[in-house]
Amino acid sequence: MSSDTWQVGSRTFSSRLLVGTGKYRDFDETRDAIEASGAEIITVAIRRTNIGQEPGQPSLLDVLPPDRYTLLPNTAGCYTADDAVRTLRLARELLDGHNLVKLEVLGDAETLFPDMPQTLAAAETLVKDGFDVMVYCSDDPIQARRLEEIGCVAVMPLASLIGSGMGILNPWNLRLIIDNARVPVIVDAGVGTASDAAIAMELGCDGVLMNTAIAKAQQPVLMASAMRKAVEAGREACLAGRMPRKLYSAAPSSPTSGLITPGS
Q: Are 172 and 28 within 8 A, CB to CB?
């Protein structure tokens, strides 16, 4: 499905799987898993990963060069709007003016649930400052609409808590967001296995972002490959359109007309 592209901001992509770069054993495993995933967009936690701010130390850019991947600097670990804005301005300097970013402002260290008032405040500042903001948010359709109105180029509602692997806990809210959004909707957080990714895509999401589900699998590279296939299969199923659900009735798979009847 190479022609089935999607757009965020001014950029166009083929892969609908976005992956993070944290929690792997080393940079080599990071590189191998991301290659297996087929992802074009990779997220980088600026506060936790060296992309040049620590001269002389191993850099993620040595194994994941920016000329091959679209880096998506994120604000993981930020708990205020000011910290998030400061972090992404630093990222823009380190990446020579790169303006596509992922905003997340967390409410507490226990749940890593988004602090939506702080997220909205940071989004307004960043959009006015010329950033293309993809934003991690709660699965609240009203909050998602507000972020779109501010000018964010993608909304990224959680499926369940970051790193929980619990899958999509509220598909109804997610569907409300999808049906009303005019920007891409990317499920972000909570995916645990390939079926979760497929369900997100079947619901109509434009993509799925994940990190822990791959990095903490027993075989990360194999799981990355599975996630790639799941996202592609879910997307095809969405485009194909599933059969209607029929409660309390069955329908035979083969035709019922023109059958040979006893005595004929």
A: no
2 pLDDT more than 80:
no
**Rounded distance between C-alpha atoms, residue 195 and residue 208, angstroms:** 12
Tokens for 215, please give them. Answer: 């990095």
Predicted model pTM: 0.88
- Confidence grade of residue 251 (pLDDT, cut at 50, 70, 90): low
Q: What is the pLDDT of residue 252?
A: 67
- Known catalytic membership, residue 246: no
Strands 70-74 and 41-45, sheet pairing: parallel
Supply 211's token pair. Answer: 């990190």
Q: What's the start-to-end Cα distance of the chain, in Å?
A: 49
Task: Give the start-end residues of each E strand in 69-129.
Answer: 70-74, 100-103
Q: Specify which residues 101 forms β-bridges with.
A: 133
Residue 176 one-letter amino acid: L
Catalytic residue among 23, 102, 128, 246: 102
Apex 85 CA angle, 82 and 89, nearest 5: 140
Length of the chain in terms of residues written: 264
